[in-house]
Amino acid sequence: MSVPTRILVKLVKSGIEPKLADFSECILNYFGLTSGSGSLYVELKDNYLIISDVSQAGSDEVAIQHPTFCPMLHLSLEAVSLPDEISTRGVDVGASILLESSDGKILLSKRARHLRIFPGLWVPPGGHIEENETMLEAGLRELKEETGLNLKPSDCLQNKIYLLALWESVYPPKLSVGPPVRHHIVVYFHAKLLEDLTAEVMERRINFEPGEVDSCAWLDRDIVSAIAQSFDEDYDEGINNDHLPKSFRALVLDENQKQIFCDLPTEPLVRILSASADDKERVSTGTKFALQKLLQFEADLL
Questions:
Q1: Predicted local distance difference test score (pLDDT) of residue 272
Q2: Residue in 51, 64, 212, 194 with CA at minimum distance from that of residue 124
């Protein structure tokens, strides 16, 4: 059986020869975005995700960010000791869809605990881009594979699904947990569903894949806003979340592997990243960033 082609990141910087991104290279630093955020141009072409500081035909300008604790910012002697199969693998690409119901709830799924990277974390449905897919096609395929939801642009307002932002993701997320084993650029999209597609309607259509997902939930705006405010590097310890419900409704599997509704505690969703390897149940830092961008985008429309 043939090995699937991995879609890798290629960097195109003004005045410099294009090149594949190195695994141990901080992409934002390469483009001089030393503040940890900025905007670049992106397109998927010839099975490469091309990131550039120069606009090109077919490219889209998009926000990009990483946390200040990004391991690739702080690699030193650790980089020398990375195994060859890690240090030479380049930077992978994923696509993820923030799906918003017509009544303003956001779908997140909890990654299965046996997965190799980010096990047990809450994220939007998503995964790797496959050969000859567009970024959006990959996001829609992963949404269907993970949740059973067969989404089309025609299910969305204005028949559109919008490119939202890019996130530079490394696992483990901190060097204190362990040396890096995966480096990704995650492409986030936002899809707002048509009026009749409420969270109640959509949750009846979910049939999630237990090999990928432990549970799914449509989260209301109070919880989504609190998650976005709990961003792992600028968290305000003074934030009061007493207004949040103590639990939220989620789809989980019972002992017979049948989907059932269950109330799960809200507190882990607003938990910030720790230095521990046993860091489950929280929302991933990249997801918090994407939710911030979504809320900011919607506020700008008001």
A1: 85
A2: 212
